[in-house]
Structure prediction request, 226 residues.
Amino acid sequence: MPKAEPRRRSRMRVLVTAGPTRERIDPVRFLSNDSSGRMGFAIAEAARRAGHDVVLIAGPVTLATPKGVRRIDVESARDMLAAAKKEWRSADALFMAAAVADWRPAKQLAGKWRAKDGGAKSARLDLVRNPDVIATLTGGERDPDRVVVAFALETGAGERRALAKLAEKGADWIVLNGPVALNADTTALVVLGADGVRIAIPKRTKAAAARDLVALLRHRDDFRLG
Prediction:
């Protein structure tokens, strides 16, 4: 008989990350991605409506802060990691919905990059890897007293890669979506559990999908799609 998962408290301190990060090349240029932050903000709102205490760490987006949510604005991946490490110390659950840049310029220039001024037809930008925020927080190990939900945006045969990420990051769940969800009001998701559970969430608004995801904070057997 499988070992029962621990019951979760009805009121939890939930940490949510949302939006992109920006990795500065110079004072006016940066590397980033198309994440709008809508999914993470919807999760923060849904968690607050469910009665949880919510801290939202947001990359550079223009979305309004959900009522009752404490928001921390950051820019780079390293900024997000620093804020998340501080807040994770007292958190019961994490939704890592932010699209954190994997790479950053090896050197941020103090002045505007002027490679074209010498007539060059091409230029090279050296990159270094950013820290993995969620793996740093979890140490790559699951904690039976906390709930960790990772996200994976994949193209092609993404479930195999998502399952690998699930194990590497020490998460309880990983939420798989595709690039069509970027900047969209709707999304369709596949949620994969560390215990082998697979939950398909059909296309719906991000607000409705967020309510489904917040239900992951309950005992698995209590999970119901809204």
